[in-house]
């Protein structure tokens, strides 16, 4: 019931031209690829009319075997280049980390990392090897295995922090991979404020600042707009705040408004203003529920059969703040016309005359996947019950940074076939594993302990202090002092970064020890209590930004430049610190995860390096051995390292070129000697 399928072939029956799928559309991606690329059809094409669940197929997206297929668009890396890298490294040397470092695939936005991992697995198997599922070099467990160990521990207090979990189940210092993963596990089970009790040291780039870091080190602000419904008062306050802080404003595809260009020290004040009209954190920075889109449904639309806005608000307010292995998106459509695109979401609901059809396991992104039908014609309370179980089952068993679609595709088939969707029906609806009580209980705990993270920061001076720009002074350096902002369509944005190896990228000092001949003195930069444990903090010395790292786990202190040499962004103090397998203390840049030895500044995955300075503790004073401010500013001064547009040094004022441009002369050839 509820399934209609029509496929259109050419007269010879050798090509699929198109089709209509209603209800079970789990094989949409495969059929679409066959129609577009002219894939091979079975001897009897009519077999494709039956949905994959009826055929007992397990549909999983396959990566193209074509070596020319682009995998990483950020760095223009093809499958063939990744495969060649794996062959060169060999079975023993081809880890995901090494493959990313050597091929550059997955080192940009990170969206292609799952594909890189899949290619690595496939190529290793061709070479007679296998891909380890260990979380990282510090934990010999996968993320689901580590989650199981923590959640089933007889003494929860023995695994309620990263240090305790590392001591009990791992070794070493931790790193930029396992710290956020464990932080997510703790949030999914215990739901404590992520900035408290040292958990801020576990958070990745965005979570530590409760905002998304953008180009140049500024941040975006994204208030929650449940179901896309917003009041005039909230819109007015958004406008006032955006104008006051000169924030670039954009309406997103998720029915929210993003504000870009905020400095970290401004965030608490911005959120205090937004909170005054009831706006909460949108968790755009977290691996959590982002939004629940909706059409207007029966409240306004003449076609709507259910109140999709009201239900979307209910769903979003229930799951807001729930941390998961990866981001989650949802939608509610008020009728079969599907204006909210619910079937392209991690979970989505489409209204019927009798209730809602519930779809799960869809997503857009790099590899779009059509969601699968879990239940039909169910009321709102039943939808919530099934979603509680589905989301928590995903949280407990998915791998690190794994969306619901690939997680769902890897699940076993049902007892009588039908693929993973039948397995989910058995687990969620029939309680075949006997875990529904636990799933219900854990989800209800997360709902009951919800807190608006920004409201918690705004009302607490100690938490607000974490957003101070420099620990040793109340002075600030504005965003414009670090990167040029340019006008665009009546708003401002940071100037474009140039490609690597162009000016203002991959910065290197003139010598490896630029201050070796300088006269230095010990300078107090603050009290030990000013520097949070196991994280970096920025200090201002003259015009130069430096980063001081309190590695309390080792009992060591380090000081480096705060500017990451890759793109000349002043962000290193926001990076996660950890250690390598051979004991090197390191920091990972929060922008692109470039890694540096904290002791000597050498790049661990590139030929870039940092300038470092000696640190000592005298009583409760943190002392850094520094040359004069004039010498340091000559090399590391913010004014001299500010990223500017490529044409900023060309002054054409008063020239014939300026006159020609102003007069609108076109097709003019200008020769510069």
**Which range best describes the helical content: under 10%, 10-25%, 25-40%, 40-55%, 55-70% or over 70%?**
25-40%
Q: How would a crystallographer describe the biggest sheet? A: 5 strands, mixed
Fraction of residues in β-strands = 15-25%
Note the overall shape: globular
| SSE class | alpha+beta
Give the termini separation: 76 Å
Number of helices: 22
Number-wise, the strands total 27
Rg estimate, integer Å: 27 Å
Uncertain regions: pLDDT < 50 for 5+ in a row?
647-652, 665-673
Mean pLDDT: 91
Q: Which strand order spans the largest sheet, edge to edge or round the barrel?
A: 9-10-11-12-13
In terms of topology, how is this protein built?
Elements: E1 4-9, E2 16-22, H1 28-37, H2 52-55, E3 70-72, E4 77-78, H3 79-93, H4 96-103, H5 113-126, H6 143-151, H7 162-169, H8 178-190, H9 205-209, E5 212-213, E6 219-221, H10 232-244, E7 248-251, E8 257-262, H11 267-275, E9 289-294, H12 308-319, E10 328-333, E11 347-352, E12 355-360, E13 372-378, H13 380-397, H14 404-410, H15 420-428, H16 436-448, H17 453-458, H18 461-465, H19 479-482, E14 485-488, E15 491-494, E16 521-527, E17 536-541, E18 544-551, E19 556-561, E20 563-564, E21 569-570, E22 576-579, E23 585-588, E24 595-597, E25 612-613, E26 615-618, E27 621-626, H20 629-636, H21 638-641, H22 656-662
Parallel strand pairs: 9-10, 10-11
Antiparallel strand pairs: 1-2, 3-4, 5-6, 6-8, 7-8, 11-12, 12-13, 14-15, 16-27, 17-18, 18-19, 19-25, 20-21, 22-23, 23-24, 26-27
Helix pairs in contact: 3-4, 3-5, 6-8, 13-16
């Amino acid at each position: 019931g509820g399934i209609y399928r029509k496929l259109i072939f050419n007269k010879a029956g050798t090509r699929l031209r198109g089709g209509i799928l209603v209800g079970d559309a789990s094989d949409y991606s495969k059929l679409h690829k066959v129609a577009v690329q002219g894939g091979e059809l079975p001897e009897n094409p009519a077999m494709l009319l039956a949905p994959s669940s009826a055929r007992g197929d397990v549909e999983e997206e396959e990566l193209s075997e074509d070596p020319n297929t682009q995998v990483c668009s950020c760095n223009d890396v093809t499958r063939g280049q990744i495969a060649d890298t794996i062959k060169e490294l060999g079975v023993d040397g081809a880890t995901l980390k090494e493959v990313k470092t050597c091929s550059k695939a997955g080192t940009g936005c990170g969206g292609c990392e799952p594909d890189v991992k899949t290619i690595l697995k496939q190529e290793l198997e061709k070479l007679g090897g296998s891909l380890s599922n260990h979380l990282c070099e510090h934990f010999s467990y996968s993320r689901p295995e580590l989650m199981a160990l923590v959640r089933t521990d007889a003494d929860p207090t023995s695994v309620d922090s990263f240090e305790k979990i590392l001591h009990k189940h791992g070794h070493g210092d931790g790193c930029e991979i396992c710290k956020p993963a464990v932080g997510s596990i703790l949030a999914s089970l215990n739901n404590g404020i992520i900035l408290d009790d040292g958990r801020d040291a576990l958070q990745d780039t965005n979570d530590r600042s409760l905002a998304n870091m953008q180009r140049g080190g500024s941040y975006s602000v994204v208030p929650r707009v449940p179901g896309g419904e917003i009041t005039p008062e909230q819109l007015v306050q958004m406008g006032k705040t955006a104008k006051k802080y000169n924030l670039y404003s954009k309406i997103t595809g998720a029915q929210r408004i993003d504000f870009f260009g905020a400095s970290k020290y401004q965030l608490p004040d911005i959120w205090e203003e937004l909170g005054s009209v009831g706006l909460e954190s949108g968790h755009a920075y977290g691996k959590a529920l982002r939004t629940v889109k909706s059409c207007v449904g029966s409240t306004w639309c003449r076609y709507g059969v259910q109140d999709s806005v009201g239900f979307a608000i209910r769903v979003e307010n229930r799951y807001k703040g729930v941390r998961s292995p990866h981001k989650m998106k949802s939608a509610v459509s008020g009728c079969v016309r599907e204006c909210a695109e619910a079937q392209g979401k991690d979970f989505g609901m489409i209204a019927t005359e009798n209730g809602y059809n519930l779809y799960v396991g869809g997503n857009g992104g790099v590899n779009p996947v059509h969601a699968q039908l879990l239940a039909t014609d169910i009321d709102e309370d039943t939808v919530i019950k099934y979603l509680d179980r589905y989301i928590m089952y995903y949280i407990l068993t998915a791998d690190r940074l794994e969306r619901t679609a690939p997680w769902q595709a890897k699940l076993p088939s049902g007892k009588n076939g039908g693929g993973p969707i039948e397995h989910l029906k058995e687990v969620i609806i029939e309680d075949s594993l006997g875990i529904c009580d636990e799933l219900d209980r854990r989800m209800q705990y997360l709902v009951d302990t919800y807190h608006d993270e920004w409201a918690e920061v705004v009302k607490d001076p100690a938490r607000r202090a974490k957003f101070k720009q420099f620990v040793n002074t109340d002075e600030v350096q504005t965003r414009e002092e670090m990167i040029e902002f340019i006008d665009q369509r009546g708003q401002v944005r940071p100037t474009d970064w140039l490609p690597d190896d162009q000016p203002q990228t991959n910065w290197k000092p003139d010598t490896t020890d630029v201050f070796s001949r300088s006269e230095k003195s010990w300078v107090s930069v603050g009290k030990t209590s000013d520097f949070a444990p196991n994280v970096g903090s920025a200090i201002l010395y003259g015009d130069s930004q430096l980063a001081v790292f309190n590695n309390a786990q080792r009992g060591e202190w380090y000081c480096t430049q705060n500017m990451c040499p890759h793109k000349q962004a002043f962000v290193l103090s926001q990076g996660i610190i950890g250690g390598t397998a051979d004991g090197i203390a390191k920091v990972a840049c929060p922008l692109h995860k470039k890694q540096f030895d904290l002791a000597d500044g050498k790049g661990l995955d590139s030929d870039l390096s940092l300038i470092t300075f000696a640190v000592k503790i005298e009583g409760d004073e943190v002392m850094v051995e520094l040359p004069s401010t004039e010498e340091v500013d000559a090399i590391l001064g913010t004014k001299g390292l500010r990223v500017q547009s490529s044409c900023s040094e060309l002054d054409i004022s008063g020239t014939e070129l300026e006159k020609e441009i102003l007069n609108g002369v076109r097709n003019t050839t200008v020769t510069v000697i």
